[in-house]
Amino acid sequence: MSEPFLGLTMLGLIVVVIMMGFPTAFTLMGLGMLFGFYAFYNPVEPWIDNRVFDLMVQRTYGAMTNDVLISIPLFVLMGYVMERGALVDKMFYSIQLSFRRVPASLAVTTLIVCTFWGIASGLVGAVVVLMGVIAMNPMLRAGYDVKLASGVITAGGTLGILIPPSVMIIVYAAVAGQSVVKLYAATMLPGFFLALLYLAYVLGWAMLNPKIAPSLPEEQTRVPVPPWMKHFAEVYSPNMLAGLLAALVSPSRALGIKGEEGRLTYWKLVKNLAAALFPLLLTASTLWLLWWYVVIHQQAAATEAPEGLEELGAPVADAGPAAAGGPATSFYVWFGLAAAVAVFALLRYYRNMTAERLQVVKLLVSSVMPLAILTVVVLGVILFGITTATESAAVGAAGAFLLALQARTLDWQRTKEAVFLTAKTTAMVCWLFVGSALFSAVFAILGGQALVEQWVLALDLTPVQFMILSQAIIFILGWPLEWTEIIIIFVPIFLPMLHHFDIDPILWGVLVFVNLQAAFLSPPVAMSAYYLKGVSPPQVTLNQIFAGMMPYMLIVILCMIMMYIWPGMTLWLPEYLYG
Length: 579
Fold this sequence. Notes:
Number of helices: 29
Strand order of the largest sheet: 1-2
Distance between the termini: 49 Å
Helix content: over 70%
Shape: elongated
Oligomer: single chain
């Protein structure tokens, strides 16, 4: 057998051995050492002098000194601290009250919380198990279809590995030699778009067939309004915003109202007014931040350099009309439309600011906003270039500890569990990198990489055809393998060919990320299904969970097709932020 075909045998063996249940990292190292010993074998030299041992040391050192991998344990620690801190129960309750009048409200709430919690933690298994414990039984008790309930949890739980901060993105960045920051920016819009497609599917299915998601009983949709709010509305106004403003001007009647904790105080009125105004403040701050970055910050950055000076070695810049006059006219048009829609929505919202709405806003502020602020800060400092990914991960881990301590849910035992799981996950990723580095080096030495490239080039494919072929192979590999094996073993085979077909490795990588969502949803190695089965009632079978996941695989394919048609969904944000 020739050496190139020996390399292909090596590639086939790794799939078979992994499917037999052997540990991936040590299987990679074992096959790499075995075939590498043959590749470097010299009968005149002692076996101990075989160069495969030097290669093992070099590859191990290279993996351990990879700066990109430093952020993995910090992001993983952030996720496990929040998961062990049990911060999601109150969030689920408050979001469920917010969407209580929406069809399939429990399923919609589950998908939203899965998306949000997945972003914050980046852990698929933890999110699926946690949401299975919190949401599965309530949906089944409400009469929801088992396929709907299981599909929403398993599909929503996988979004955490796609939307940053994600360990998968960091691993791909280390393998492909790409910028983590640009990959984070590139995955933002596709990740949220895929979540939107999931949400549209759930709502559409529930509206077409209401039997799969019956309406909740009144006691599960009733907002727990405190007695003092009802009395306050009778004294001042049913509109809580108007009543609170009037009470701050004339507080005598309000201070006479008794609540569960005694009489109302002026400070409590101020806090309730701040909660009532929170949607207005959030909308205004978002619009202002967008205006500042696009209009003020960009023009200030353009005028920082002294006029007439050019960076050494840089080509002469052609200052177009957009650079000289600020953003394009279309930005002002879209910004004005967005501001008008926001004003209309706020006026409509505050026109009927009842005690129930105020209570829901207070629940959302107390349960969602701390985690939302932490997530926005962690992603914002990365995307705007304030810190590196590693420094941002450190901020996220510290913030997760603060949130858990503030909620008084993180004790010493849970802290030890979070640190232990972080060390376990980090060790797994590091050994995978060591094994894959050795395996890929031996595979290339045997000529397997060159043989695959020659085969692909002999097909005379167009760039689109190569894109489809590579993604189809990865999609099929996702059925028996997990994302770690695919990213570590098979993605490096395609990477050298991207340059030949003039394909952006960031665009191709994000397509791989979306594609690998199906790896968590495709039997027989659909890990999300097994995570959910472990915490589901006995009557929920694995076949029902598989059937619930299948439609979401088709949605993943639809999302990839739309990304093919409109690559700007992936490349617009990194190009806008970083050029």
